[in-house]
Design brief:
Layout (H helix, E strand, L loop, with lengths): L2 H4 L12 E2 L4 E2 L5 E6 L3 H13 L4 E4 L7 E6 L4 H10 L3 E4 L4 H18 L10 H14 L3 E8 L5 E7 L7 E6 L7 H15 L3 H9 L1 E5 L4 H9 L10 E2 L3 E2 L34 H12 L4 E9 L3 E4 L11 H19 L4 E4 H4 L7 H9 L3 E7 L15 H21 L6
């Protein structure tokens, strides 16, 4: 009997990965993308075991409770094994009908065309050099903008950001983007928000722009971001070399707050590898030192990720509620309600542990738990699901930026009503 039919799959797609020696460019021409639903506890445990302990699969979407969907790219040499697992455990699901490599090729070709025109806008994604050059230009064009350094990467790149300040005495908002390299919509959304803070004529945007000091870092994992552009579109981690030919740790599992307690792997090849110790990655260590230098100034920490259309807040290491859980929950509800008004985009919200999956050692939770920043949120941006995932069409950058900015205005207004911004 056909294994895929027995496993309840509907259609087949071919994608592929090939390493071009010398240039080390990963391709996805012959991979298959499966989406399965864990309908039993055993199925859930199986998928989570694969996700945490295998370096062969790329999980685009995973879950932590019965009924959750998993979207996973399976390499050619694992197709038979994966199909057998699906058969033996009676998984049902669908195989998304798309060509991942074609999407990557289309994305790359558009970017090259745009780059030749020398334009920085939000109709296409930009590489690190373009983003950093734009930040420098902002500092030369606007007296309110100052280039700041959050440290350096393993390969020596700057963790470059800007401070935007219209007047002294403002409470500080810290915005982090790009901690996971492949989540390109994150730096794009962060730069969109930054541009709006400087150029928007909307009264509500001007209010938050001028009454807070903004510390904005579009790409806090610069080595990984460059690698995702030049070598492997689905790269997630840093680029620190480790024994055995392994590279990188998950920089959003590496912070020193309940490090490696939940939702993190100790295996170097795993995408959720937490590193050999807290702050083993120079990126997280140096950025944390910069944030600590702002002690008492930062009143909110907001991280941007993709994807799933979620608004998350602490805790992630435990299902226990944070001390101000009710406030965080109410603010999140108002925030996603505001986000949905423009385009009808539906977000869910909640504490990290329950709303998405257990995950410890994250930047926002460290800011909350170790630095006392009582407002700590993580956006998981578009899409809600599906194979496009991290390769989000550039036509969605501006709509994502617009609705996210709408929601950010509401988040700060609702937080202000609850006296979270006393200096």
């Amino acid at each position: 009997m056909d294994l895929l039919k027995k496993a309840c799959f509907l259609t087949t797609i071919l994608v592929g990965v090939q390493i071009v020696l010398g240039e080390e460019v990963a391709r996805y021409d012959n991979y298959r993308v499966y989406q399965v639903t864990a309908k039993t506890k055993q199925q859930l445990d199986t998928m989570n075991e694969i996700q945490l302990n295998s370096d062969a699969y790329i999980f685009l979407e995973n879950g932590h409770k019965v009924g959750d969907k998993f979207t996973v790219i399976v390499p050619p040499h694992k197709l038979a094994d994966f199909a057998e697992t699906m058969e033996n455990e009676k998984f049902c699901g669908r195989i998304i009908n798309s060509n991942v490599q074609q999407s990557i090729d289309d994305e790359r070709n558009r970017m090259l065309s745009k780059r030749l025109k020398g334009v920085f806008d939000w109709t296409e994604y930009h590489n690190l050099e373009e983003i950093h050059g734009w930040l420098d230009k902002l500092a030369s064009d606007y007296k309110q903008v100052e280039v700041i350094q959050g440290g350096r990467s393993y390969e020596g790149r700057s963790i470059k950001g800007v401070k935007v300040s219209y007047k002294s005495g403002n409470p500080g908002i810290f915005i982090e983007g790009g901690i996971h390299a492949r989540e390109w919509i994150s730096p794009a959304t962060v730069t969109y928000i930054l541009n709006a803070l400087l150029t928007s004529e909307d009264a509500s945007v001007r209010n938050i722009a001028e009454n807070y000091d903004w510390y904005i870092f579009p790409s806090v994992n610069p080595d990984g971001y460059v690698y995702s552009h030049n070598r492997n579109r689905y790269w997630r981690k840093t680029r620190t070399p480790y024994p055995g030919g392994c590279f990188g740790a998950d920089p959003n599992r590496n912070w020193d707050f309940f490090w490696a307690v939940a939702g993190a792997s100790r295996r170097c090849y795993a995408e959720s590898f937490a590193g050999p110790k807290p702050f083993s990655e120079v990126e997280t260590k140096s950025l944390s030192e910069y944030i600590k230098s702002l002690n008492g100034k930062i009143q909110a920490y907001i991280a941007f990720h993709s994807y799933s259309q979620l608004l998350l807040f602490p805790y992630g290491h435990t299902g226990e509620h944070a001390p101000n859980h009710d406030d965080l929950n109410e603010i999140a509800n108002a925030t996603i309600t505001s986000l949905a008004k423009r385009y009808g985009t539906v977000y869910r919200y909640g504490n990290i542990y329950d709303a998405i999956y257990p995950a410890s050692g994250s930047s926002s939770e460290w800011a909350y738990g170790a630095q006392g920043v009582r407002l700590a949120y993580t956006y998981e941006l578009r899409p809600a699901g599906g194979y496009t995932g991290f390769v989000l069409p550039p036509e969605e950058i501006i709509p994502t930026g617009e609705e996210t900015l709408d929601s950010l205005v509401t988040m700060l207004e609702e937080s202000g009503k609850r006296n979270y911004f006393k200096m």
